[in-house]
Amino acid sequence: MDFGNKLKEERERQGYSLEAVEEETKIRKAYIKALEDEEFSLLPPRVYATGFLKLYAGFLKLDAEEMVNEFKLLAYGAQEEEESFQVPEATKESGFNWPSNLNLKRILTAGMFLVLVIWMGNNLANYFASRGANEQTQPRPSVSQQQPEKRAKPPQVAVKTAEVVIEATQKCWLRIVVDDQQQYEGMLLPGQTKSFIGKKTVLVNAGNAGGINITFNNKNLGPMGTPGEVLEKVFSVDKPGTE
After folding, report:
1. What is the pLDDT of residues 29-59, one digit of tens each?
2. Which member of 32, 91, 94, 133 has the greatest number of CB atoms within 10 A?
3. pTM value?
4. Burial of residue 194, with CB atoms counted within 10 A of its CB: 0-12 exposed, 13-18 middle, 19 or more buried
């Protein structure tokens, strides 16, 4: 199986899109596609391209070392490793100890890792910056929206009425006029009770004033008069009752 097809078919077998691999590995989609299409001229310098391939192959759970070796042979052939260049004579004469190939590899690997970290850090910084800008541009609810204004309830004014309750202890003829309108005329027998409510006045005309007890606005006034007495009283909102 060809090098590029091996990567592509394994990626597709595992169900990853190029975008998903880019998200997971932080390797640019263009570089992933260049590896799969074997368009090696589109890749970054050799040390970075090799590092990206090793990361990508490891992500797909392929043999990373085998893939890297195959890639180097295809992409660079018999060319020497970039890090294995000859030390200039002038440098040797100066007495400077140039790093060995092994140490140079480690330095380059650390540098590649640092580049990846910086690249990821920039992406995260841009993400949080754009997120913060979106939050700032969103309108905040006004004070009136946050908490509805509480309106004071108007004070309730007690409505005055004239309420008369008549309880018969003896047989008594009655005529009742409420606010100048006659509401009752008849004989009230012992044990019977009648109640009347007027906005202004309640007039009680009794043929046996001693035979009825009067309660006016929840206040017990007792018998309206003496037994057999014919009596008329007006119970007003302003006064408890007058003849």
Report:
1. 999 999 999 999 999 999 999 999 999 999 9
2. 32
3. 0.36
4. middle
Strand partners of residue 164 = 196, 216
160, HSE (Cβ side, Cα atoms, 13 Å): 8
Long-range contacts of 143-152, Cβ-Cβ distance < 8 Å, separation of 24 or more: none
* Token representation of residue 63: 């043999």
CB 175 within 8 A of CB 200: no
Q: Which helix (H) or strand (E) holds 7?
A: helix 3-13
Contact indicator for 177, 131 with CB cutoff of 8 Å? no
Which residues neighbour 119 within 8 Å (Cβ) at sequence distance 6 or greater?
26
Residues 6+ apart with CB under 8 A from 53: 35, 64, 67, 68, 71
* Angstrom distance (rounded) from CA 100 to CA 108: 12
Q: Are 195 and 213 a contacting pair, CB within 8 Å?
A: no
Write the DSSP symbol of residue 242: B
Cα distance between residue 83 and residue 51, in whole Å? 14
| Beta carbons of 229 and 187 less than 8 angstroms apart | no
Distance CA 19, CA 236 (A): 91
Residue 95, SS3 per DSSP: coil
For the record, the structure tokens of 211 come out as: 């035979």
If 0-12 CB within 10 Å is exposed, 13-18 middle and 19+ buried, where does residue 127 land?
exposed
Predicted confidence (pLDDT) per residue in 156-203, tens digit: 666 789 999 999 999 999 899 999 999 999 998 999 999 999 999 999
